[in-house]
Amino acid sequence: MEKRASGVLMHISSLPGEFGIGTFGKSAYDFVDFLKETKQTFWQILPLSTTSFGDSPYQSFSAIAGNTHFIDFTLLVRAGYLKVSDFAGVDFGTDPEAVDYAKIFHARRPILETAVANFLASAEGPEALSVFEQSATWVTDFAEFMAIKEHFGNRALQEWSDVAIIKREEAALAKYRSELKDVINYHKVCQYFFFQQWFELKTYANDNGIEIIGDMPIYISADSVEVWTMPELFKVDQDKKPMYIAGVPADGFSEDGQLWGNPIYDWNNHLSTDFAWWIFRIQESCKMYDHVRIDHFKGFSDFWEIPGGDKTAKNGHWASAPGFELFTAVKEALGDLPIIAENLGYIDARAEKLLSETGFPGMKILEFGLYDETSKSFDLPHNYSANNIAYTGTHDNEVINGWYENLTVKQARFVKEYLGQADHEPINKAMLRTIFASVCDYSILCMQDLLDKPADSRMNMPNTVGGNWQWRMLAEDLTVEHKAYLTHLTELYGRARSNN
């Protein structure tokens, strides 16, 4: 990483465009151009993985497979696999500032099926797919999982009505592979489209001096290909139902704690295999991104383990994880890696020790520090150290305007005094100025905050289901004034990328 640098947090889904959700098409390339023009270094995104219950990219059917909603139809027209008439007039949603996941789930499928059929009928398609399958060693298992899941009405793995296929008995596998061959191929080709378009976009970003910060969730969904094919990696029973699930104890987001529902890892198994699966997973993530933000880093030192049938996180307990051994094995296998630790939430001495031992940069959240009304918070800039990334907030926090509206009079007074906020200075600019001026090597702003968006542009409310991950910007939101302000801020505090 280049010292004293900055960037923007903006998920692919939030890009403007005509297909109901942001894609890897023109708007994504335009966003790279915007980052270059404003002298940024980083584009930070959320997980590119598939989304399931609650539309969350942190509840995915696969640790590796990509979200096919991001496949751009115009690029498929250019490749010869679609015609404009294949999607002209299709209703992808009526609100250009919000993703309607139910609508795009149904509207996009027949269009992609047309593209897949044309791809497989083309001269180059079957050979290109064969080459892809050889490098994407995970894709066959994923495609089979998704095809079988659809066969059972998209129900979760543990709810499939055929126990033999839940347990992957050979006769059952042979039966479904034969019956669902076309659907299996559909999912394989969609993954080919996804990765082809993503890597073309990433190459364009890198060629223009922009580095991608990707996001790797710590946990895997219970309804996933990994639990289906590698149950030994998790604490699940013979029916692949989680015996223990992940979450966190009571915090600022929830009085009962957060019940995430992901199965807990069987760390003894991971130790016995020298962390082979983790090494593979991190290696794949480093192919996809220039820097990998590992979500919930504390879970690698110790984690909140909740009995599988519980409805809240109250009855959990702290259990130890072999984080130091894991990252030592990863370093021995892959060398020094561009990892960022998401060290937010309850960070105790064990988590701090692991972060120090790895040397990974951590994260500082200005909103957290300013709640405190004292000078003691480690999230206040005068307590920052250089090897961190400064944020006003992330996708899990309120946007600045929403956060500010909820302050008490006393808190607002402290905020104004601490930030040195002039009477005419909007709160979003005062907050952004503060993180860019900080000693942290890197600062990242959320796109909503640059655009001065209201509270309803928040991306996610932790521990809630529904109504999240929906915000999209409009192309006209990004004005000349916004660009000029970001460029000025970046140059003023020595964060401008030198080769821009």
TrEMBL record:
<keyword id="KW-0328">Glycosyltransferase</keyword>
<dbReference type="Pfam" id="PF02446">
    <property type="entry name" value="Glyco_hydro_77"/>
</dbReference>
<dbReference type="GO" id="GO:0005975">
    <property type="term" value="P:carbohydrate metabolic process"/>
</dbReference>
<dbReference type="InterPro" id="IPR003385">
    <property type="entry name" value="Glyco_hydro_77"/>
</dbReference>
<keyword id="KW-0119">Carbohydrate metabolism</keyword>
<protein>
    <recommendedName>
        <fullName>4-alpha-glucanotransferase</fullName>
        <ecNumber>2.4.1.25</ecNumber>
    </recommendedName>
</protein>
<dbReference type="GO" id="GO:0004134">
    <property type="term" value="F:4-alpha-glucanotransferase activity"/>
</dbReference>
<comment type="similarity">
    <text>Belongs to the disproportionating enzyme family.</text>
</comment>
<dbReference type="InterPro" id="IPR017853">
    <property type="entry name" value="GH"/>
</dbReference>
<keyword id="KW-0808">Transferase</keyword>
